[in-house]
């Protein structure tokens, strides 16, 4: 039978490919922080007339024109005022955003800290002339010119908003109330099988943060800069945690349902998830543990190859304007970047709930960052584990 | 571009008929050319879209990714395969995936055999059509809806827990739940080939077997089973390969379980490491090739 023979031949070819090829080159090392400068790209000198449209890469919920919910709309007015038609492409992950921006088809992107540096050093985004963005002066100082949105004092973007990864627990089950991340790492936890954790390699930073406070001898200074020994300790901690975990979550609706039903009673969360769970009558509470937490701080960046730079600047100015920034912060469930946005939220307690004005709260938050070989904490005598290593380790942890 | 007049047949009915007729006469004499012309398009499709894609998969599995910029480095190396072979976790996950696929196949076979037998041999002929429709109806509903429905059913204190006697007594989310839901999802793909196989079995054979004094068990072993085994294997190709590649169900009800599909997905989606994902994706390809080679002798491939 001919099909069979072809299949056998294919299998043989596959095996030969596996066995036959020799040693190739090693993985090319990354460039980036640690002496290497981003490509020189000029920022926009002055604002000209709009080009009629702007292509945006954004997280879901960041660019709403009323098509999801007629009441949720901060795009239509912008289009009317500026004449810039907004074309949005929603990306699901930071890596997807990086890939999309590399095509050069898009003008602006809402990059998280684990994408922004790659975009800067890849030469995919240009420095931003903040003088052209009127609302920039009202952005919280705690967000300006940070490691993930600037290089050597040059701003590469406009802060959008921020949030912290919190510890959520069922108040009717978990007693006494936890105050430390130790609750999710305790090998003798009575909640074995009902603990949950965020399903992403970036969760390694949560373990590193815990070790930073409880195993000072490891010398972790930044949970995103881990050398071999520190990395091994974090991986080890998470492997032990794996035995306690009931399920990992990356879809927030899944976590809401798991806490409501009681499949999960303790684990990491976002503020928006805690609010949804409470609205769903689940007896939960979310706290910022004593060790602090990891979190995110998103930045609007403009492409180095932007075809519509003037509309892109107008969009960046608009999205951090008090009203639009308040609307998006409420819709997504995060703290706005603009100080004046707090007066514009529909729920007057929004900024208090999300600690928007609480710099002391955010000082305890380590925003997501891209782990690279050149240690982010400034060490030059060791190599740190890069994100590819984090990803492979995450697979091993889950087993 | 200038078109040469030689490229085109001259216009006019009489002039056109000459070359066409000559061509058809020539084709009539050359059967091989005729066949080649007929098969060229589908073969081109098969080679480019299926085998070509597989070849690209194999080749890109030999590349790597620059850790910082995410660019693919097009230098052939076996690093990806070395990681897969030496790292224990990939062996574990591959074995687990095969185990899940095998368990789903066995469960589906056990449920599908009596159901298909009832549909093909016991039910009244005018009911059969409706039974087939009933088996097919679940396929109309979205895969995701069904998987999320099972998530609710299996939740703590949900209906399944209640069946087992209270919150926390059921299987909960995990490997067992994954097998259960996959078995539910792929059941129609097992029932239909077995039903088709049994329908071809003439009733007179069963009657003859009974007339010759065979009991139900003997008839099943000696008459039904030889007919139905190739159908079961045909169905198992569906259930096995669909389960082997699944990554959504296990995300929804699998708790912390990960299968090959999840690893491929994570390496594409989260890690932006297409070459490693390609290397991982060759595992199920090799398993399926092995499976197909093993089952082709049974004649099951003719049952598809």
> How many distinct domains of chain B?
2
Total of DSSP H or I helical runs spanning 4+ residues of chain A: 14
Say how many strands of chain A there are: 14
- N-to-C series of helices and strands of chain A: HEHEHEHEEEEHEHHEHEHEEHHEHHEH
> Which range does the strand content of chain A fall in?
15-25%
CATH class of the largest domain in chain B: Mainly Alpha
What is the C-level CATH assignment of the largest domain in chain A?
Alpha Beta
Instruction: Provide the domain count of chain A.
Output: 2
CATH second-level architecture of the largest domain in chain B: Orthogonal Bundle
Terminal-residue CA separation of chain A: 41 Å
Order of the strands making up the biggest sheet of chain B:
1-2
Name the average pLDDT of chain A.
85
Extract low-pLDDT stretches of chain A: 1-32
Overall shape of chain A: globular
The main sheet of chain A comes to: 12 strands, mixed
Distance between the termini of chain B: 49 Å
InterPro entries (chain A): SBP (IPR006059)
Pfam family, one (chain A): SBP_bac_8
Keywords (chain A): Signal
Protein name (chain A): Extracellular solute-binding protein
């Amino acid at each position: 039978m001919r099909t069979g023979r072809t299949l056998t031949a294919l299998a043989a070819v596959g095996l030969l490919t596996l066995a036959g090829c020799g040693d190739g080159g090693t993985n090319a090392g990354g460039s980036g922080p640690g002496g290497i400068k981003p490509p020189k790209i000029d920022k926009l000198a002055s604002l000209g007339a709009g080009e009629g449209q702007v292509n945006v890469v954004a997280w879901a919920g960041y660019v709403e024109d009323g098509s999801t919910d007629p009441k949720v709309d901060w795009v239509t007015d912008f289009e009317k005022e500026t004449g810039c038609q907004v074309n949005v492409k929603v990306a699901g992950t930071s890596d997807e955003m990086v890939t999309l921006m590399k095509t050069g088809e898009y003008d602006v992107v809402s990059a998280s800290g684990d994408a922004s540096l790659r975009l800067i050093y890849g030469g995919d985004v240009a420095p931003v002339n903040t003088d052209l963005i009127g609302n920039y002066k009202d952005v919280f100082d705690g967000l300006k010119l940070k490691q993930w949105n600037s290089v050597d004092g040059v701003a590469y973007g406009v802060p959008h908003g921020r949030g912290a990864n919190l510890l959520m627990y069922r108040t009717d089950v978990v007693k006494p109330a936890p105050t430390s991340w130790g609750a999710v790492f305790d090998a003798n936890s009575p909640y074995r099988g009902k603990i949950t954790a965020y399903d992403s390699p970036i969760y390694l930073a949560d373990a590193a943060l815990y070790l930073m406070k409880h195993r000072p001898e490891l010398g972790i200074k930044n949970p995103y800069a881990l050398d071999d020994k520190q990395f091994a300790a974090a991986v080890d901690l998470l492997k032990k945690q794996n035995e306690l975990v009931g399920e990992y979550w990356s879809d927030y609706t899944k976590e809401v349902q798991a806490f409501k039903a009681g499949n999960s009673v303790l684990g990491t969360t976002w503020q928006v998830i805690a609010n949804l769970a409470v609205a769903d009558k689940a007896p939960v509470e979310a706290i910022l543990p004593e060790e602090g937490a990891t979190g995110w701080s998103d930045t609007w960046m403009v492409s180095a190859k932007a075809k519509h730079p003037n509309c892109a600047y107008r969009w960046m100015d608009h999205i951090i304007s008090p009203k639009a920034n308040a609307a998006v912060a409420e819709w997504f469930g995060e703290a706005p970047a603009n100080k004046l946005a707090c007066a514009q939220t529909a729920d007057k307690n929004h900024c208090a709930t999300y600690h928007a004005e609480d710099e002391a709260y955010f000082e305890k938050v380590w925003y997501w960052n891209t782990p690279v070989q050149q240690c982010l904490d400034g060490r030059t005598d060791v190599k740190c584990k890069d994100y590819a290593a984090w990803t492979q380790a995450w697979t091993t942890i889950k087993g | 571009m200038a078109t040469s007049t030689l490229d085109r047949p001259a216009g006019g009915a009489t002039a056109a008929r000459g070359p066409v007729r000559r061509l058809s006469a020539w084709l009539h004499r050359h059967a091989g050319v005729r066949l080649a012309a007929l098969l060229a398009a589908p073969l081109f499709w098969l080679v480019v879209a299926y085998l070509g894609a597989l070849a690209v998969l194999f080749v890109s599995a030999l590349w790597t990714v620059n850790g910082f910029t995410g660019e693919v480095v097009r230098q052939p190396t076996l690093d990806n395969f070395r990681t897969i072979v030496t790292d224990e976790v990939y062996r574990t996950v591959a074995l687990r995936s095969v185990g899940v696929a095998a368990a789903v196949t066995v469960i589906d076979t056990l449920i599908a055999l009596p159901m298909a037998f009832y549909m093909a041999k016991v039910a009244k002929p005018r009911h059969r059509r409706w039974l087939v429709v009933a088996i097919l109806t679940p396929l109309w509903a979205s895969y995701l809806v069904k998987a999320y429905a099972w998530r609710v059913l299996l939740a703590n204190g949900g209906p399944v827990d209640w069946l087992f006697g209270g919150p926390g007594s059921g299987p909960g989310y995990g490997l067992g739940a994954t097998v259960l839901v996959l078995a539910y999802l792929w059941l129609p793909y097992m029932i239909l080939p077995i039903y088709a196989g049994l329908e071809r079995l003439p009733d007179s054979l069963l009657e003859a077997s009974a007339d010759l004094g065979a009991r139900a068990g003997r008839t099943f072993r000696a008459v039904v089973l030889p007919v139905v085994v190739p159908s079961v294997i045909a169905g198992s190709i569906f259930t096995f390969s669909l389960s082997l590649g699944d990554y959504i169900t296990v995300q929804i009800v699998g708790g912390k379980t990960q299968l090959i599909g999840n690893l491929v997905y994570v390496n594409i989606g989260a890690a932006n490491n297409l070459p490693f994902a390609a290397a991982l994706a060759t595992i199920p390809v090799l398993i399926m090739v092995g499976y197909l080679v093993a089952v082709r002798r049974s004649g099951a491939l003719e049952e598809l």
